[in-house]
Amino acid sequence: MTDQFIKNAIESHHWDYPIQAIPKDVEYVNNKDVIMIKNKNVPNIQTNKVIRFTNHASLESVLSFFEDLPFS
């Protein structure tokens, strides 16, 4: 088992729901550099999180995405 295999398994845990099961209040970004999930109605770090962050140039986009919400 490689580190990449384990990382992919952890990341996929956050995306194993059919699109119909994702509440309309949940917003997300999912691309090769960053995976982020937020729900403006639930302002806590367990709900609003960055799952993958590979490019420090994306930091501004992360901060902009979460606005004033706490995130982890």
Describe the structure.
With 72 residues, this protein is α+β, with helices and mostly antiparallel strands. The protein has one domain (3-66). Helices cover 25% and strands 22% of the residues. It is built from 2 helices and 3 strands; from the N terminus they run H-E-E-E-H. It has helices spanning 3-12, 59-66, and strands at residues 26-30, 34-39, 49-53. The longest helix is centred in the first third of the chain and has 10 residues, at 3-12. The radius of gyration is 13 Å and the shape is globular. The mean pLDDT is 84.
Briefly characterize the structure.
Helices cover 25% and strands 22% of the residues. The protein has 72 residues and is of the alpha+beta class.
Topology:
Elements: H1 3-12, E1 26-30, E2 34-39, E3 49-53, H2 59-66
Antiparallel strand pairs: 1-2, 2-3
The secondary-structure class comes to alpha+beta
The SSE string, one letter per element, is HEEEH
- Overall geometric form: globular
Strand residues, percent: 15-25%
Uncertain segments: none
